[in-house]
Specification:
alpha/beta, five-stranded parallel β-sheet, 23 helices, 16 strands, about 35% helix
Length: about 575
């Protein structure tokens, strides 16, 4: 997996002697494709790429990460697609492109750089403004490696990690920004300008009846999967849930032979299983039913506690994740799953975006979460990190930070937040919850050489489903009515009727014991960088959650790796 990395200066003197642009690849990744020309983009770790040689687009240079198309066809990773879309210059570019991408366009004639991310932000893109230009990268580690980029911890980075929300444009580092999803940012001698090229919008209304809505949703889903699987072998993750099973079934319909599928599992996971609101039942029986239904070539990735606590794995995770989130408990097994999939395929279908778009999470369906002002998942976040990080959350005023970001999110909503609350909730999940899931999927994919493709983030699908009234989403009194109806003929009865169940986590007590032992060492050592954030009195609390133990360990590793210090003002 290639990474987009570059440095542009707006002074020709600075760039004198540079004949070709370069693309830098992240450690462990292969060189990517990068069309370039004189005085354009210079990679931090350079791998020479061919010159553009496009006489019909003089002075334009395009660098593409991901896949896009200017029409309804299969998405492609060819940067010429971007140049073709620049018929009237880069200013018109974002609206004419669809797909899953981050891209950079250099306009030599105007000496302007344009950075663009797709509608949902399926590919990351960061930048830092220097005195005479811009350093940009799709990987924070690559950006921070540039000598002109300072590595300084911002307090809002800590607040964001403990608040459990994604803040558009923000990173944990002072002076380092992210291009928000659905935005184009242009840099030039005269400064920087922003343009939002997409936002969730239901202002046109929704007039289709239920049968038409189901049929249209199915058509858009089929198209989204076809566009992301039409260029070679693509594997599928199968959890036995509605989301992944729908994608796998649609993928299988257009393949002459069996598709390749994977699922994560743990020894003895089904034995004595105790239902939980987030995971009412184990995946394994439903995975078996779905695999048999598809006739797929299937692999169960069986993970033991020792697999999840290995030093090499944790070092890798610390290197991949900048400022870990409260969902850190899924990361060890997910990275191991991706590694195994990458051994068999270069691409995989991911279900990110389905719960956010179709209302699958429990938070959508309980009034105390869905209708109360604020982010619906915030009370859960506070519950799972409030024991170990409660003191730090108060000192950092995390509730105040989250309230401020909530007001900002509501201000982006095009409708009435009071009369159209549930559509607002969907938008909150799409813009403040989903980005972290997409970023993690991309980072793990890039680290393992796996292209994670996300059909549920298809722009046309999101546009249509976002406008569907909430009453249609819950027409049968259950979650994901619309998706279930659209996929009804694709799935076995057991999978079709299954309740939403979250990503499976090991239930082995040995894993939690290992975590608690490691966290106890952190609490006992004032020299550890995360120590000021921890309430050492809580380390033996029976309600100490795996989320906060994982978060404490990952935060400590990150702070240590980046040589960052927690400001004494919050201790």
């Amino acid at each position: 997996m290639s990474q987009l990395v570059g440095h542009v200066t707006f002074s020709t003197d600075t760039m004198r002697g540079v004949e070709h642009g370069m693309l830098a690849a992240a450690p462990g990744a292969g060189a990517g494709r990068f069309w370039s020309g004189r005085h354009a983009v210079v990679g931090l770790r350079a791998a020479r790429a061919p010159a553009a040689g496009r006489p019909d687009r003089p002075g334009l240079v395009a660098a593409l990460l991901g896949r896009c198309a200017a029409g309804p066809g299969t998405l492609t990773d060819d940067p010429d697609t971007v140049l073709d879309a620049c018929a009237d210059g880069p200013d018109t570019l974002p609206g004419s492109l669809d797909g899953d991408y981050a891209l950079a366009v250099w306009d030599e004639s105007r000496r302007q750089l344009t950075l663009v991310r797709d509608a949902l932000g399926t590919r990351p893109l960061y930048y830092h403004r220097t005195d005479d230009g811009v350093v940009f990268a799709s990987c924070l580690a690559a950006l921070l490696a540039h000598p002109r980029v300072p590595v300084r911890l911002g307090l809002d980075g800590l607040r964001q990690a403990l608040a459990g929300i994604a803040v558009p444009g923000a990173t944990p580092y002072e002076g380092v920004r992210e291009v928000p999803a659905g935005h184009a940012v242009r840099f030039g001698r005269d400064g920087v300008s922003w343009r939002r090229h997409w936002r969730p919008d239901a202002s046109a209304g929704h007039t289709d009846d239920l049968a038409t809505t189901v049929r249209r949703t199915r058509e858009l889903l089929e198209r989204a999967v076809e566009r992301r699987t039409g260029d070679g072998p693509v594997a599928a993750l199968v959890s036995g849930g509605l989301d992944s099973s729908t994608l796998a079934a649609l993928h299988a319909r257009h393949r002459s032979g069996p598709i390749t599928t994977f699922a994560v599992d743990y020894p003895g996971y089904e034995d004595g299983y105790e239902p939980h609101i987030a995971r009412p039942d184990p995946d394994t029986p439903y995975v078996r039913d779905m695999v048999a239904h598809l006739g797929a070539r299937h692999t169960d990735v069986l993970l033991k506690p020792a697999d999840l606590t290995g030093g090499e794995l944790w070092e890798t995770l610390v290197g991949l994740i900048e400022a870990p989130t409260v969902l850190a408990d899924v990361e060890p097994s997910m990275l191991l799953l991706y590694r195994r999939v990458a051994e068999a395929s270069g691409a995989v279908l991911g279900g990110e975006g389905a719960d956010e778009l179709f209302g699958g999470f429990p938070w959508f369906h309980h009034p105390q979460w869905a209708t109360a002002p604020g982010f619906p998942w915030a009370p859960t976040t506070d519950l799972v990190v409030g024991t170990l990080f409660g003191r730090a959350s108060a000192a950092l005023d995390v509730p105040g930070f989250r309230d401020q970001e909530y007001r900002r999110a509501v201000a982006e909503f095009a409708g009435d937040p009071h009369t159209d609350r549930m559509r607002l909730v969907i938008q909150l999940f799409l813009t403040r919850f989903l980005p972290e899931q997409l970023e993690r999927a991309h980072r793990f994919g890039a680290a393992t050489g796996l292209d994670v493709r996300t059909p549920f983030c298809d722009r046309a699908l999101v546009d249509y489903v976002f406008a569907v009234p909430w009453a249609v989403h819950t027409a049968d009194g259950r979650e994901k009515t619309l998706l279930r109806a659209a996929a009804r003929d694709l799935l076995p009865a057991s999978v079709r009727g299954r309740r939403k169940s979250g990503y499976p986590l090991t239930r082995d007590a040995a894993y939690d014991h290992t975590l608690r032992t490691a966290v106890r060492r952190l609490c006992a050592d004032p020299g550890e960088p995360v120590h000021p954030l921890l309430d050492d009195r809580a380390v033996d609390a029976p309600r100490l959650s795996r989320n906060e133990m994982e978060l404490a360990l990952r935060l400590n590793g990150w702070l240590k790796r980046r040589r960052l210090q927690v400001p004494s003002s919050i201790v």
